[in-house]
Task: structure prediction
Amino acid sequence: MPSWQHITYSDEIAAEHAGSIVTVGGWVQEIRNLGGISFIQLRDRAGVVQVTVLKKKNPELFKEINSLQRESVITVKGVVKESKEAKKGYEIIPEEFRVLNAAASPLPLGVVDKVGADLDTRLNNRFLDLRKAEIRAIFQVRATTLAGIRRHLTDEGFVEVTTPKIVAAGAEGGSTLFPIKYFDKSAYLAQSPQLYKQNLMASGMDRIFEIAPAYRAEASDTVRHIAEFTSLDVEVAFIESSEDVMAVAEGIVHSSLNHVAEAARRELDILGVDLSSPETPYPRITYDEAIDLLRSNDMEIDHGEDLGTEGEKLLGDIMLKKRGSELYFITKFPTSLKRGTFYAKRDDEDPELTGYFDLDYRGQEIVSGGQREHRYDVLVEQMRENDLNLESFAFYLKAFKYGMPPHGGFGFGIERYVQKMLNLSNIREAVLYPRDRVRLIP
RNA sequence: GCCCCGGUAGUGUAGCGGCCUAUCAUCCGAGCCUGUCGAGCUCGGGACUCGGGUCCGAAUCCCGACCGGGGCGCCA
Result:
């Protein structure tokens, strides 16, 4: 006789269990009571198992189990019976059951209701939303993606680091910083580990990465912006050009896509997503070529202009159609468009160009980076152009005076990556508890 | 920050000046049913975001508040 504590998951029950008693447990997903026989769909982490109850066998138990509210948590001790009618090929004939926690009614969000629910309603009741296999699958894919990225980078000799999320100054414009109180000083939530990962390039740890939250107080209310997102940041020293940085980004995407396609096959199946990485190398086009492509596709855009959302989307279509790739690099962004990126190295021949690149996935930017300016004097000059207060960057600048190798890196938006991978209409779908301009709870 | 759009039962919707005692589905409750798996059938339950205004009459029109959705800019 198994104990109440030893619960067999629905996917562990096999032919060998037939005739023996097991304990199953989980949430009462559905009760189909036909009068003399009743079917309880009991859901656990692995799936759903059917508990079949006969009235004439045990009228008392029949009555009690059928009067449960949906989504109550119960454990059932019963005999595993092979059955042609049951979907799994077996069902549980209960001997006894325990109610661990009865659910109230009505549910604020149905788990298996045959009607939709707004994202807002779902997020307000995220724990219930996550009881749906197809929602949980998103986060399993996300975890698998992160595992693939970590494995790849570790194999490539990268060291995972963690840098402060409470900082004294921002890496980019000050308007997107969340101010916080820090004892008797004022501080901010880090919008990027930019300054720290560059700082580390002077440390001898010449290949590093960090996977951590980044905070942006942008007043951006779109399906691809959130105030707190997970940023994969990579920095590599002793590079020759931005091309070396692109190669790292490409390696991460390629290997993690393949890893997910393999290791998350079940979840992709649930989500109806067919995933694969395009052949490497991914196409690379320059910013100027991108503008020309857009213009030849009847978009009104001039050289020197930002691609804009419309341009990015159109370019995604064009690259898929003409180059057969959902992933592609846009390289050599003009300096005028990266003006705020004071640490970007400019082209030696043409200072109006940077070596900065974006990696776009299905018409949306997921990675942005390039070679940094590692020469102290030039860096200071570029910071002055941006009217930056050099004193508040003292710790950052110091590292450039005592042996800073050439280096580069990028920021990689994990949720955007998952969003595009799974064709999610809103980035919030890829975050358990998203933070945006208005949402702070749950 | 700018520009659109919307808020009707627990959930999702229809209705857009009087046919509203508000539609449909889902859900909940009662009943029938021994193989359901989008179970079926019968009966029942439950809602117009809030505050002003217009009008003989407001879910419906106007103003404001609150809440939400989408787009742009910007970005990961």
Q: What stands out?
A: Chain A has two domains: 3-101, 129-430. Residues 227 and 435 of chain A are 5 Å apart (CA to CA).
